[in-house]
Design brief:
- By secondary structure, the protein is α/β, with parallel strands linked by helices.
- It has one domain: Spore Coat Polysaccharide Biosynthesis Protein SpsA, Chain A (Alpha-Beta Complex), CATH 3.90.550.
- The protein has nine helices and nine strands.
- The strands form two sheets. A seven-stranded mixed beta sheet has the order 5-4-1-6-8-7-9, sandwiched between helices.
- Helix 2 links the parallel strand 4 and strand 5.
- Helix 8 crosses helix 9.
C-alpha cells in the first residue's frame, strides 16, 4: 500500500504556530491536506509530535487523514513508526510547509518510482516547496536503523540519497512544464506567508489550482 505521510508540528523557530495560520479562513496544515487529497494513494496520514495532536486531530479527520504521533526531532523515527503501525509499503513524503505542492508532479514521480521499484525518488528543478519524495518503506526502515547524524534523523531522507551504493535512486530533472527552480513556494517566514496568501487568493477560482503549470503561471503573473 502507498500512503501519503504528511509531517507537521506546531512550533517553528522562524514562524511560530505557522501550521495553524489561516490561509483563506482555514489553517495552513488543512490547506496542505486538501491539496494532498488530489494525489492518488491508498492511505493518508498526518504524523505529528504528541504536543500537536489535540490541535491537529479535528483538522486531519475533516480531511480524511489518519493521525499518528512520534518523536518531535527524530522525524525519521516518526516515519518509521508510521510505516510499522500501518504496514505501509511505499511512502509519499510531504511536509507542512508547502501549501502549493504540485499534485500532478507528485502523482507522476510516485508512478515512476513504482515502475522502477526505486528506493528513493524525487524531481529536481521544481520550485522550492512544490515537490514530494516517494520512498520505499523497507529502505526507509533501513535508514531508521542505520542513520546516526542529527541532520539525517531530522530531515528523513538524506541517508538514502547520500548512499547510492546502498539504495536505488531516481532523481530526474522534472519535465519542463514543472520547472521553475527560481520560485519559492514554501512557507518558512512571515514574508513567505504573505506571498502564500496572495497566491492562494489568485488560485481559488482556477479549476486546476493544484497543478504545477497553473501555480507557476499565477505566481509569475503576480510577482514578476
Amino acid at each position: 500500500m502507498t500512503a501519503i505521510v504528511l509531517q507537521a508540528r506546531l512550533d517553528s523557530s522562524r514562524l511560530p504556530g505557522k501550521a495553524l495560520l489561516l490561509l483563506d479562513g482555514k489553517p495552513l496544515v488543512f490547506r496542505i491536506m486538501e491539496a494532498l487529497n488530489h494525489v492518488p494513494a491508498g492511505l493518508r496520514i498526518l504524523a505529528c509530535p504528541e504536543d500537536s495532536v489535540c490541535e491537529f486531530t479535528p483538522l486531519a479527520e475533516k480531511c480524511g487523514f489518519k493521525i499518528i504521533t512520534g518523536p518531535k526531532d527524530d522525524v525519521l523515527e516518526r516515519y518509521c513508526g508510521t510505516i510499522r503501525h500501518f504496514s505501509i509499503k511505499r511512502v509519499i513524503r510531504a511536509t507542512a510547509d508547502n501549501p502549493f505542492v504540485f499534485t500532478d508532479a507528485a502523482a507522476a514521480i510516485n508512478a515512476e518510482a513504482l515502475a522502477l521499484n526505486a528506493d528513493y525518488s524525487g524531481y529536481s528543478g521544481l520550485p522550492e516547496g512544490a515537490g514530494v519524495e516517494s520512498v520505499n518503506a523497507a529502505a526507509l526502515l533501513r535508514a531508521g536503523n542505520e542513520a546516526s547524524l542529527p541532520y539525517e534523523r531530522e530531515h528523513v531522507c538524506p541517508f538514502l540519497y547520500t548512499h547510492p551504493e546502498l539504495f536505488s535512486l531516481h532523481r530526474p530533472l522534472a519535465p519542463i512544464r514543472w520547472q521553475a527552480s527560481g520560485i519559492r513556494l514554501t512557507v518558512d517566514t512571515q514574508e513567505d506567508f504573505e506571498i502564500a496568501k496572495k497566491l492562494y487568493t489568485a488560485l481559488k477560482n482556477e479549476e486546476q489550482r493544484y497543478h504545477g503549470p497553473i501555480i507557476i503561471r499565477k505566481y509569475t503573473e503576480i510577482f514578476s
